[in-house]
């Protein structure tokens, strides 16, 4: 009964019939209470989005797997201290320890979310040292700004390590006789799935598995055979943990996890006339079972038809194999044959690993450049990918984000549109896409995007960020703010939602709450430069220039290639009367983005302040060609001509500036300058 229930629970989980899995597993644990069955129940709860249930049933459990699952439940509930306590006994992990990489990764997440950055980085690096293909750890290091070059993490030197992982796991099913290394094939939630029967074996219990054929034939029993434990099956939490075994049927031999429960139906028959002594010496064989009985009762997971192959390859007859020695002899020959075949494929395997690491190197280097805001380099790296990889939703979304950071909104729109066509179900980075459309003032396109995202997942924070941007573009700032706050409610660690809330408060001139939102965003992600920039803008508006400089510099340190940040930092330095520093910053901004007119205009103003009128005039003439309808350009040119005593040209440019309908404040300044043309400065001073 226990084996039957376990089989159906596993089957339900594999088929995503989560509610059925929970119900059956609750019956299993009620009938056969053991910590291993409790672990399976916890897995069912976690699969069914019931982390609180898993938390309460696992609290206080000491087995390695129990503590791992308990930590998973704690993380789902943001109980970081308890999750850390469950995982902390992990010491001196190495590549051979099951789930060593996963445990280190979880510890890295815990330390990241509890503001212990250095320890977080340490554990993410340990994750990669254990398993170089653990992409999520490298991704976290990139986001923290602490990733090494991808050539180091995914270089040729890592191929032997990956090969050892792969060959170790693959060859586990080829181990002879009593050795079992097959923990990997039964992992769930990144940890080894421990056999319930073997737990009882570890406790010294002999289990008799009773099975009866469909015709009411005799029941056959088999004693559990003690097996050796490999180093790969060692508990990673310093707690003795059971090793997967196969004792669910009376014909299971010591041949590794998930071996077939049958030699072949009809290939063997039990000689019922043999005495009890002969039965004790020989392995028990089952009477004919229907395929339904076999699959439902014994055959858990993917069964390897080991013994059917034995019959076909080595000419075993259907008469009888009464001797354990004969069976083991055939097993040895089978395993040796498979091992030889496996070794012959090792070159192919190594080549596949090399190609995989090469792909990860390219992806990793592109992603690292993007996280360091070296967007042009990231785009160049992504261009090296094959068309199969490049034309995927994730890559195109990263390309769109790179163009967004470069303030190239048209190309960003194009890349994100392609990503949507290829992966319309993927919402990652779609919040950024909605901001792209906001800047392009593509109202209808933004509305359509928001509606599509609602259909995909109305409970995703990205969806509500898109909705908020849609309202903000329509000047409905109250509704926009509610949408951004809804995104925060859905995921309090979604930094961009906090930042967008801050932007909306600033538009509404509620600077106090804007500061709170930006600070919350930085608490979640200290490298979210948009929030440093937002705080700088608030202090600049409040004319708190020293505070503004500090926050703009923080943003600049994180993203040193943003012409927008450089411009506002230069503007702040200009307000602080540090004209030389401001001019240097404006020149850097122009080099980074020659198409951005703001730093060019500010540079011209600074040159006027420094008395370099001709240089300033050259820049303004260039700007006039690019942006002919900006009144401030003509007003500044009029001021320069006035200082050069070219009053006719000064009056002409002041007049053009007024015709372009500047703001009320600028109108007053221009009219005052015109009055001074009529009454020259010298006369004004004499008066």
What does this molecule look like?
The protein has 687 residues and is mainly alpha-helical. Helix content is 64%, strand content 0%. The protein is built from 37 helices and no strands. Helix 26 packs antiparallel against helix 27 and helix 31 runs antiparallel to helix 32 (597-609). The chain is elongated, with a radius of gyration of 35 Å. TPR repeats lie at residues 101-134, 461-494, 529-562, 563-596, 631-664. Keywords: Cell cycle, Cell division, Repeat, TPR repeat. This is Cell division cycle protein 27 homolog B isoform X2. Pfam families: ANAPC3 (PF12895), TPR_1 (PF00515), TPR_19 (PF14559), TPR_2 (PF07719), TPR_8 (PF13181).
Please describe the topology of this protein.
Blueprint: H1 2-14, H2 18-31, H3 35-47, H4 51-58, H5 64-76, H6 80-87, H7 100-113, H8 117-130, H9 135-143, H10 150-153, H11 159-170, H12 196-202, H13 276-281, H14 291-297, H15 306-314, H16 324-344, H17 346-371, H18 375-382, H19 387-390, H20 393-405, H21 409-422, H22 430-439, H23 443-456, H24 461-473, H25 477-490, H26 495-507, H27 511-524, H28 529-541, H29 545-558, H30 563-575, H31 579-592, H32 597-609, H33 613-626, H34 631-643, H35 647-659, H36 664-678, H37 681-686
Give short descriptive properties of this protein.
687 residues, mainly alpha
TL;DR?
Keywords: Cell cycle, Cell division, Repeat, TPR repeat. The protein has about 675 residues and is an all-alpha fold.
How many DSSP E strands? 0
Summed over residues and divided by their number, the pLDDT gives a mean of 78
Could you tell me the strand content as a percent range?
under 5%
Main β-sheet: number of strands, strand sense, barrel status?
Answer: none
Helix percentage: 55-70%
Instruction: Report the radius of gyration as a whole number of Å.
Output: 35 Å
Helix-strand makeup class: mainly alpha
- Shape label: elongated
> Could you name the ranges where pLDDT drops below 50 across 5 or more consecutive residues?
92-98, 171-323
Contiguous helical run count: 37
Distance between the termini: 110 Å
């Amino acid at each position: 009964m226990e084996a039957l229930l376990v089989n159906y629970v596993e089957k339900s989980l594999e088929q995503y019939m989560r509610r059925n899995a929970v119900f059956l597993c609750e019956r299993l644990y009620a009938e056969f209470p053991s910590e291993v069955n409790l672990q399976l129940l916890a897995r069912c709860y976690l699969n069914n989005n019931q982390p609180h249930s898993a938390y309460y049933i696992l609290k206080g459990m000491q087995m390695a797997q129990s503590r791992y699952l308990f930590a998973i439940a704690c993380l789902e509930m943001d109980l970081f201290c308890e999750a850390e306590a469950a995982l902390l006994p992990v010491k001196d992990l190495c590549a051979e320890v099951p789930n060593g990489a996963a445990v280190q990764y979880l510890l890295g997440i815990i330390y990241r979310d509890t503001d212990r950055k250095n320890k977080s980085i340490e554990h993410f690096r340990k994750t990669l040292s254990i398993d170089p293909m653990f992409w999520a750890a490298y991704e976290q290091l990139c986001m923290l700004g602490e990733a090494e070059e991808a050539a180091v993490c995914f270089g040729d030197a890592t191929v032997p390590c990956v090969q050892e992982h792969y060959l170790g796991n693959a060859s586990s099913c080829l181990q002879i006789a009593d050795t079992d290394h097959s923990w990997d094939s039964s992992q769930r939630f990144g940890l080894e799935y421990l056999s319930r029967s073997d737990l009882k074996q570890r406790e010294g219990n002999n289990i008799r598995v009773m099975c009866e054929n469909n015709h009411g034939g005799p029941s056959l029993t088999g004693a559990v055979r003690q097996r050796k434990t490999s180093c790969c099956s060692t508990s990673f939490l310093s707690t003795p943990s059971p090793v997967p075994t196969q004792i669910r049927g009376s014909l299971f031999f010591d041949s590794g996890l998930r071996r077939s429960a049958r030699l072949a139906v009809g290939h063997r028959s039990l000689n019922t006339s043999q005495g009890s002594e002969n039965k004790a010496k020989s392995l028990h064989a089952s009477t004919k079972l229907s395929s339904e009985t076999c699959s439902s009762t014994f055959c858990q997971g993917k069964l390897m038809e080991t013994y059917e192959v034995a019959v076909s390859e080595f000419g075993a007859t259907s008469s009888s194999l009464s001797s354990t020695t004969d069976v083991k002899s055939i097993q040895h020959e089978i395993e040796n044959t498979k091992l030889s075949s496996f070794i012959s494929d090792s070159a192919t395997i190594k080549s596949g690993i090399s190609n995989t690491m090469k792909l990860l190197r390219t992806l990793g280097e592109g992603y690292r450049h993007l996280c360091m805001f070296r967007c042009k380099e990231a785009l160049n790296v992504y261009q090296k990918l094959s068309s199969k990889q490049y034309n995927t939703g994730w890559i195109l979304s990263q390309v769109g984000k790179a163009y967004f950071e470069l303030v190239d909104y048209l190309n960003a729109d194009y890349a994100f549109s392609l990503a949507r066509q290829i992966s319309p179900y993927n919402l990652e980075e779609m919040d950024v896409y909605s901001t792209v459309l906001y800047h392009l003032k593509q109202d209808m396109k933004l509305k359509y995007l928001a509606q599509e995202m609602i259909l995909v997942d109305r409970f995703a924070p990205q969806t509500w960020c898109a909705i908020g941007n849609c309202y903000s573009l329509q000047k409905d700032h109250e509704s926009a703010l509610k949408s951004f706050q809804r995104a925060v409610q859905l995921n309090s660690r979604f930094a961009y939602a906090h930042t967008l809330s801050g932007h909306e408060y600033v538009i509404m001139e509620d600077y106090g709450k804007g500061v709170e939102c930006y600070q919350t965003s930085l608490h979640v992600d200290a490298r979210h430069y948009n929030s440093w920039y937002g705080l700088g803008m608030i202090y600049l508006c409040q004319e708190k220039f020293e505070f503004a400089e500090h926050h703009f510099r923080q943003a600049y340190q994180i993203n040193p290639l943003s012409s927008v940040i450089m411009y506002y930092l230069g503007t702040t330095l200009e307000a602080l009367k540090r004209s030389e520093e401001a001019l240097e910053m404006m020149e850097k901004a122009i080099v980074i983005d020659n198409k951005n007119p703001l730093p060019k205009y500010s540079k011209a103003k600074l040159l006027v302040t420094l008395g370099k009128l001709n240089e300033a005039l050259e820049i303004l003439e260039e700007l006039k060609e690019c942006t002919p309808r900006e009144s401030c350009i003509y007003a500044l040119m009029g001021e320069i001509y006035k200082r050069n005593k070219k009053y006719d040209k000064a009056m002409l440019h002041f007049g053009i500036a007024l015709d372009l309908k500047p703001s009320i404040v600028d109108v007053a300044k221009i009219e005052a300058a015109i009055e001074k043309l009529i009454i020259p400065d010298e006369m004004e001073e004499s008066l």
